[in-house]
Structure prediction request, 203 residues.
Amino acid sequence: MTWLRELLAGLVRGLVEGLKSKPRTASGPPRNVTNLRDKIAADKRELERLLGTKHIDR
Amino acid sequence: MVRMVAVCCLLLAACGGGVDDTRRVLDAANSAVLIADRSISGARDKAVADAKDTATTVEELRAALTPWIDLSDRMLRVLDVTLEAYALIDAGMVEAAANLLPCVLAELEALLVAVEGVGVRVPDSAQAGLAVVRSLVDTELRCPL
Prediction:
């Protein structure tokens, strides 16, 4: 039964290593969504800034 | 015992499917927003440059820029709803996230109409994203519209 014990130990070790090395990116919003939101918000701020300062420029 | 395990497996599979479907809708909606943003950027930059050169009053400038500010608002609304839904999924409230999907659909439809309203043709890929959202919301997730 030694081979069975070794097999099980190997499986457990492999599972632990696999879990350790697996990047945990499945949850949470994709980063590109938050980046896109930041970019659009910055574009909007720029348009509003232009609207707010144009009369001073002229 | 075996029956209980089988029921648990079915429940887990059902929950997993719900999360996958919901995430698929959210991802499709976000992709459509990304495509919309890319599509309008050229026209918006040109409109802003023209407005800077030709507008002589604040009112003229406001008339030129407001549609683009409104479009930004619409894109942000879609993204904010999807971000809220992602957060609900992470908190384990999949049903609450699914309940937001009709709202995602409505905001996305309004956004694409608004994009066409400023004279930019909505690319087929964005329309395809909208179709994915609509189809999943209408059929698989059976959310009331």
